[in-house]
Each structure stands twice: as C-alpha cells, then as structure tokens.
Design a protein that fits this description.
about 325 residues; nine-stranded mixed β-sheet; 2 domains; alpha/beta; pyruvate-formate lyase- activating enzyme
C-alpha cells in the first residue's frame, strides 16, 4: 500500500449536510483518500477534483493507497481556539482518522487532543478501525464530550464477505470487541449501520442482531444509511464478491444497480430497520438517513406513509 502526503487548507469546518443528518455541525478531515479501500465508498467521486490526487499521481477511483495531511491537528488546534460558535464536530466525515496511513501520524488522537483542549467542543468519532482503542484513555478523560462510533456493516456470520468489500478495515468481530471495551470503560457510544448491503446485512435477522449489539454497548442513537449508488461502487463490490466465490451476494448487489431496484431496496431496508426498532420500543433512537430524490414515486409514498425515524435529506 502506498501512502501519500498532501497539504490541506481546512481544520474545523462547518458541515451543513452532516448537521441535517443530526451527526455534527462541524467536520474535521485528515486527508482525501482512506486506505481501508471500501469498494462501495463514494468519497472518490465527491473529492475527485481535489488537487491532491494529481499531485500524488493517483486516480481517486482506484485503490491501494492513502493520502493524508500530517499537519491537520495543528490547524485544528488553531481553529478550536479561534472559533467562537462551538458545537459538535465529527472526526471524520470523508476519510478515516484511524486508517493505516493516519495511524502513522497519530492523526486521530492528535485531532482529539486539539479539539478537547478547548471548552465548548464535543466530538463524534466515526471509524472502521479498532486502532481507536489506543485513544480510549484520552476519550475516557473527556467521556461526557465524546461519542464513539465504530461502524458495523455485517454480522460476524458474514464477516468474510465484508473482508472482500472492506479490504483494510478491521474485521467485524474486532469492531464488536472494541465497542465492548468502550462500553466497559463507560464511554458514550452510538451506532452506525452503513451500508447494509443486500444479500449480506439487510435481512431481518441481521438487522436485529446488529441493533441488539449496539444496544448492549449503550448506543445513544442508531444511524442507518443505504449504500450510495453513485459512481462505480456497486459494480466494484459485485465484481469482488463474485471473484471470491460469493455468487449469491454478488447477484444481490447486481440487482440494485438499476434505479428502480435500488429504490425498492431502500424502502425494504427502511421497513426492516423500523420494524426491528419498533419491536424493541426504541424508535426514538433511529436515524434513517434518506435522500428522497433517488426514490421512485411509489417507494417515496410508501415510506412517507410511515416515516418514523427517517431523517429526510437533500432539498
């Protein structure tokens, strides 16, 4: 895996989109490319015009490398002290501050230190890497100001499929163990089920098991988001699963590559998650993130008829 260095211009920046999602008012990002190599990731599409890719001689749509800015924590520290309107900041929103290339520079920990050194800031951590455990000692000192989120994308039974799709992220069982440790230490946690791929993690039993796990670890709220159909993510996911012999799963992903089928998948997933949360009498903890512009009229009406827990996004 190749690791590239870049220079970014931002530290803590407003994030209106993540504010709509109920995740955070501000964002910190430590680079432009994460080496976890999640095949479904849409970050390459959204950041494709960033100069760091040209400087590194890399395509934003290829894998096997990461791009970070080691000086990000210094900018974060300056802005954490300078900004007057303080609130909840997410680390990170486009890349992972605990991915291997970020670990080389302790970017996750240094950003946390920079933010938490100033009063008035709270932090939402989101990662797929259990390296975040190394920073639980720091988070423990500020336990009331930090929400720990370790994303789950499948149950342990389908862990092998996800190692194909999320090549360098921590394994599902490792993530569950890290969440257990966070709970043991009394840290605040929340759930992030994103994405729940068809044929792997969108069925009732899988959703129920994942929700139960988060609840056992004290999750204050549970966010769910369908897989993003932008760019080539679904095709790459399908091809990788097929190549490794997961034919049924590959076929399930292939089916939602059409607009109508993807819309139906969203509506079915919403219904399944909603059913699970309602059965547990915890609908108030559900945050299902959904862009209505990508839905067919019939699926849109179907969801609006009972949209408890839905966070409607977009215009």
């Amino acid at each position: 895996m190749k690791k590239h260095i870049t220079t970014l211009s931002t530290g803590i920046e407003p994030s209106p989109e993540f504010a709509k999602k109920g995740l955070a008012e501000y964002a910190v990002n430590v680079g432009t490319k994460c080496s976890h190599d999640c095949l479904y990731c849409s970050t390459g599409s959204s950041l494709r015009m960033h100069s760091s890719f040209k400087e590194a001689g890399e395509s934003p749509f290829r894998f096997g490398y990461g791009i970070v800015d080691p000086d990000t924590p210094e900018r974060v520290a300056r802005e954490a002290g300078r900004l007057r309107n303080r609130g909840l900041v997410q680390v990170c929103t486009t890349v992972d501050a605990w991915a291997p290339e970020a670990q080389d520079h302790q970017l996750g920990r240094r950003c946390l230190e920079a933010i938490l050194s100033q009063p008035g800031w709270n932090v939402r951590v989101l990662t797929k890497n259990v390296a975040v455990q190394e920073d639980f000692d720091l988070i423990e000192k500020h336990r009331d100001r930090v929400l720990v989120g370790i994303s789950l994308t499948a149950t342990p039974a389908n862990e092998t499929q996800m190692t194909v799709v999320e090549a360098r992220a921590s394994r599902i069982t490792e993530r569950l163990a890290a969440l257990m440790e966070a709970h043991r230490r009394g840290l605040r946690t929340y759930g992030m089920l994103c994405p729940l791929l068809p044929g792997i993690a969108d069925d009732y039993d899988s959703v129920s098991e994942l929700v139960e796990a988060y609840l056992a670890f004290g999750a204050e709220e549970i966010f769910v988001e369908p897989v993003n159909p932008r760019a080539s993510g679904l095709r790459l996911t399908q091809e990788a699963l097929l190549q490794d012999g997961f034919v049924r799963e590959a076929e399930s992903v292939e089916k939602i590559r059409s607009w109508q089928a993807w819309s139906d998948y969203c509506a079915r997933l919403m219904g399944t998650v909603q059913q699970v949360m309602a059965e547990k009498r915890l609908l108030e903890k559900l945050r299902f993130l959904l862009y209505p512009g990508r839905l067919t009229d019939s699926d849109l009406q179907r969801i609006r008829a009972n949209d408890a827990g839905v966070k409607w996004l977009g215009n």
